[in-house]
């Protein structure tokens, strides 16, 4: 990380959690409404399918590359994903971060990596989780 980078710009645990929760509401509630309109059932088994997992991972991986580090929840919360070296996000960077660093690592460690990352973001000086370290990213506040 660059020495001159101001660590105050790193977004902490609560704002990042808020962004994730907003994404969940904004994405899942409309899908649930559409499923109800089509089937007449409020069954949420669709969230356990590989198609849902693939679409969700594509959203989290591709949209930040296209949209300058944002997904919908992060945009609303005024935070975005950035590379430590200051370069533009790439698809490879986001695959490392989301698919390898979050999804696969959580499966391999039975979720322990998610807990460790939450602690690192909440208590660490740089506010970076394991997925950020793997990909060379951090989540920045827009006001810095």
Describe the structure.
It is a single chain. This protein has helices spanning 13-39, 50-66, 72-77, 91-108, 112-123, 130-135, and strands at residues 79-83, 137-141. It is mainly α and 144 residues long. The chain has a two-stranded antiparallel ribbon. Helix 2 runs antiparallel to helix 4 (91-108). The mean pLDDT is 89.
Please name the defining characteristics of this protein:
mainly alpha, two-stranded antiparallel ribbon, 60% helix, globular
Which SSEs are present, and which pair or pack?
Layout (H helix, E strand, L loop, with lengths): L12 H27 L10 H17 L5 H6 L1 E5 L7 H18 L3 H12 L6 H6 L1 E5 L3
Antiparallel strand pairs: 1-2
Distance between the termini: 16 Å
Please count the beta strands (DSSP E, at least 2 residues each): 2
H/I helix tally: 6
Give the fraction of residues assigned to helices. 55-70%
- Structural class, please? mainly alpha
Strand arrangement across the biggest beta sheet:
1-2
- The global form is globular
Task: Report the radius of gyration as a whole number of Å.
Answer: 16 Å
Which spans of ≥5 residues are poorly predicted at pLDDT below 50? none
Short characterization:
This protein is mainly alpha-helical and 144 residues long.
């Amino acid at each position: 990380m660059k020495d001159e980078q101001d660590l105050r710009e790193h977004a902490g645990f609560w704002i990042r959690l808020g962004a994730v929760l907003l994404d969940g509401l904004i994405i899942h509630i409309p899908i649930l409404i559409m499923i109800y309109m089509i089937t007449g059932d409020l069954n949420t088994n669709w969230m356990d399918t590989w198609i849902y997992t693939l679409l969700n991972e594509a959203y989290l991986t591709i949209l930040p590359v296209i949209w300058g580090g944002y997904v919908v929840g992060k945009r609303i919360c005024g935070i975005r994903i950035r590379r430590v070296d200051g370069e533009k996000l790439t698809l490879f960077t986001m695959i490392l971060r989301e698919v390898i660093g979050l999804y696969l690592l959580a499966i391999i460690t039975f979720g322990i990596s998610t807990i460790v990352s939450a602690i690192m973001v909440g208590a660490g000086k740089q506010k970076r989780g394991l997925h950020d370290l793997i990909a060379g990213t951090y989540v920045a506040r827009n006001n810095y």
